[in-house]
Amino acid sequence: MKPWILGLTGGIGSGKSAAAAHFSAMGVHMVDADHASRWVVEPGRPALERIVDRFGDAMLLADGNLNRAALRERIFTSEEERRWLEQLLHPLIRQEIVTNLAQAESPYAILVSPLLVESGQNQMTQRVLVVDTPEHLQLQRTMRRDNVPEEQVRAILKAQAQREDRLKHADDVLVNDADLDHLQRQVERLHDFYLSLRGGQP
């Protein structure tokens, strides 16, 4: 029987990666949209050439890889440039994800994506799990983890779906407002529940 697909999402600093890692440790096939978005812009891939054509050589690091920081800076200040980039990358990322999900052998597979709702990737899933965290914790965790100023984190939060919007699409919500132990126990509970589902529905 073909595995059904769970979409796993959450804002920056919500703990979705920690939740994903625990699902993965229990043997669930995992596809990370962030990884897919890195693969499609690797040196030699057409997407990277298109980005350099549009934004110039400043988009490349000395080793020929994409200069993510420079690109991020460029698109966060311009709505138009961000849209152009999304139109280029989203179809390529989607194809990468579809190919990878097709290799799943666990009863269900997980697509982890910070932009699950915004990019329409939730249409590839049968069920959506949102890892939800109060905004002040998102800010604290991200500033500590990435060592970036508060304004930058706020800009990213603004570009991502608003919490209410994300929660509207959720079939399940995992509230991550305590420690890692607490998070992992919730993941284990959800995993048991998911194993009982057919096609993602009770």
TrEMBL record:
<dbReference type="InterPro" id="IPR027417">
    <property type="entry name" value="P-loop_NTPase"/>
</dbReference>
<comment type="similarity">
    <text>Belongs to the CoaE family.</text>
</comment>
<keyword id="KW-0808">Transferase</keyword>
<dbReference type="InterPro" id="IPR001977">
    <property type="entry name" value="Depp_CoAkinase"/>
</dbReference>
<keyword id="KW-0547">Nucleotide-binding</keyword>
<feature type="binding site">
    <location>
        <begin position="13"/>
        <end position="18"/>
    </location>
    <ligand>
        <name>ATP</name>
    </ligand>
</feature>
<keyword id="KW-0963">Cytoplasm</keyword>
<comment type="pathway">
    <text>Cofactor biosynthesis; coenzyme A biosynthesis; CoA from (R)-pantothenate: step 5/5.</text>
</comment>
<keyword id="KW-0067">ATP-binding</keyword>
<dbReference type="Pfam" id="PF01121">
    <property type="entry name" value="CoaE"/>
</dbReference>
<keyword id="KW-0418">Kinase</keyword>
<keyword id="KW-0173">Coenzyme A biosynthesis</keyword>
<comment type="function">
    <text>Catalyzes the phosphorylation of the 3'-hydroxyl group of dephosphocoenzyme A to form coenzyme A.</text>
</comment>
<dbReference type="GO" id="GO:0004140">
    <property type="term" value="F:dephospho-CoA kinase activity"/>
</dbReference>
<protein>
    <recommendedName>
        <fullName>Dephospho-CoA kinase</fullName>
        <ecNumber>2.7.1.24</ecNumber>
    </recommendedName>
</protein>
